[in-house]
């Protein structure tokens, strides 16, 4: 797999496991990292760094100039980025409170970061024929219609634990839905203005409505640190469904989400690309 990948938020978890699979298949991965030293003791990543296929760029996804620099470094290897892997939010460590559940220091982390990524897409990658694939990790249960498909215990847990984080993921999905030209249901509401301020569509560099043709949003169920069942089990270890899975499952491991991205979505992009997919056991 000779893909050239720009990975944002891949220092650990889904992004990390996905990047490892891609590197193992021969891809080149440029990591945008607030602290490139995070991989100092990672012998596997370091082996790819030495081979020149893992490229570590210091930068913060909340800084548009840093994101633009990441694009430049990613393009250096082949003049074209084939895949943007966006897993911001999965690498942050929230603070747990009794009254607000899990809270991130930056309330608009994912939304702000995806806007920076999209607004800094190089001119050479803007035309429909040259756009990279964009895979972004979101979550199930963000909207009223999605939330209703979950088992009751999960709905209760999400309502307490994840409202702040889901508010940010809703902003992420609203941005991508607009830029990809997807329907946005009125009953799902709009993100809060502290997450996605009014007038965001008119800001410089923001793609036009429907401009992006190669977007996939992956919505995992509650994530676990378990192993990759799909590597050990013949047949389907997890369920994947467009929009919402009926009787949505309780959990899925981060490694299995990475498996779906690399072994399922990318090889069969005509089936999965341009959609919002839920994944669960």
From TrEMBL:
It comes from the Eukaryota. It holds the Pfam family adh_short. Gene3D superfamilies: NAD(P)-binding Rossmann-like Domain. It comes from Hermanssonia centrifuga. InterPro entries: NAD(P)-bd_dom_sf, Polyketide_Oxido-like, SDR_fam. The lineage of its organism: Eukaryota, Fungi, Dikarya, Basidiomycota, Agaricomycotina. Coiled coil: none annotated. This is NAD(P)-binding domain-containing protein. GO terms for molecular function: biliverdin reductase [NAD(P)H] activity; riboflavin reductase (NADPH) activity. Belongs to the avfA family.
């Amino acid at each position: 797999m000779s893909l050239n990948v720009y990975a944002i938020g891949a220092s650990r978890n889904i992004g990390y496991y996905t990047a490892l699979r891609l590197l193992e298949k021969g891809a080149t991965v440029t990591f945008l990292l607030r602290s490139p030293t995070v991989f100092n003791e990672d012998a596997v990543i370091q082996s790819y760094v030495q081979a020149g296929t893992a490229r570590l760029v210091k930068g913060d996804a909340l800084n548009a100039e840093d994101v633009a620099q990441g694009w430049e470094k990613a393009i250096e290897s082949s003049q074209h980025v084939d895949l943007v892997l966006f897993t911001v939010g999965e690498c942050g460590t929230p603070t747990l409170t009794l009254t607000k559940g899990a809270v991130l220091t930056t309330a608009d982390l994912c939304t702000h970061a995806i806007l920076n990524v999209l607004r800094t897409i190089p001119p050479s990658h803007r035309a429909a024929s040259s756009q990279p694939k964009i895979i972004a990790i979101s979550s199930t249960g963000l909207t009223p219609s999605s939330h209703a498909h979950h088992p009751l215990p999960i709905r209760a847990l999400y309502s307490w634990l994840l409202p702040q984080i889901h508010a940010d993921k809703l902003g992420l999905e609203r941005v991508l839905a607009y830029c990809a030209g997807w329907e946005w249901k009125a009953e799902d509401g709009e993100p809060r203005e502290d997450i996605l301020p009014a007038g965001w569509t008119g800001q410089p560099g923001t793609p036009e409505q429907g401009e992006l043709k190669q977007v996939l949003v992956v919505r995992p169920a509650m994530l676990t640190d378990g192993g990759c069942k799909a590597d050990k089990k013949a047949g389907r270890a997890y369920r994947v469904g467009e929009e919402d899975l009926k009787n949505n499952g309780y959990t899925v491991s981060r490694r299995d989400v990475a498996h779906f991205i690399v072994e399922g979505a990318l090889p069969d992009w005509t089936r999965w690309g341009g959609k919002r997919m839920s994944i669960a056991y």
